[in-house]
Design goal:
about 180 residues; mainly alpha; two-stranded antiparallel ribbon; 5 helices
């Protein structure tokens, strides 16, 4: 009698938690991919020209190695999120093997660190651009290039948002991979 009831039970708790885990993984990875792709696009299209004392100056992301790194790191992470989205689908079809989730954990950790490095580099240069540095004689430029600075700030904020999402994914993958039996 107990086996018949077990077969008739529509949604065992284990299946429900696996579907919830899969749904959260898909949603977070899609959102991380979207935020990093948006941050990449905003960074790459950030440019402004202004005239100061009769001389035209340009501000572009390509003039700063930190902003180039932010753009390319976000682009790589966006592509990696797409790959990991496909990987999550494959892992779900193969069953919930914790050994496979360990590799997903390493993948998530790597792309999280890549976004963190890009955010740190862009934040440091952005701070100098906005406030300058009186000890070294660097003047702030954001009062002359306000549109450029605003767009880069939005890109950095989106990158930090994707960093938080990737941190949640890394923790989720770590928890899932802790179930490894040696």
């Amino acid at each position: 009698m107990a086996t018949i009831e077990a077969k008739l039970q529509p949604n065992p708790p284990v299946m429900k938690s696996q579907k919830l885990f899969l749904g959260v993984q898909i949603w977070l990875r899609t959102f991380a991919m979207a935020t990093t792709l948006a941050a990449t696009w905003i960074t790459i299209t950030s440019k402004q020209s202004t005239e100061i004392v009769g001389i035209t100056f340009d501000a572009r992301y390509s003039y700063s190695s930190a902003f180039k790194f932010l753009a390319f790191a976000n682009a790589v992470v966006s592509a990696c999120c797409l790959v990991s989205l496909l990987l999550v689908f494959l892992l779900h079809l193969q069953g919930s093997n914790p050994n496979h989730y360990f590799f997903l954990f390493l993948h998530d950790l790597f792309i999280m660190c890549l976004v963190l490095a890009g955010c740190a580099a862009a934040t440091a240069i952005g701070f100098v651009g906005r406030y300058g540095n009186s000890h070294t004689g660097w003047s702030p430029i954001c009062d002359h290039f306000d549109k450029f600075c605003h767009r880069v700030s939005i890109s950095v904020i989106l990158s930090y948002l994707s960093l938080i999402i990737l941190l949640m994914l890394t923790v989720g993958s770590a928890i899932k991979s802790r179930q490894i039996r040696v």
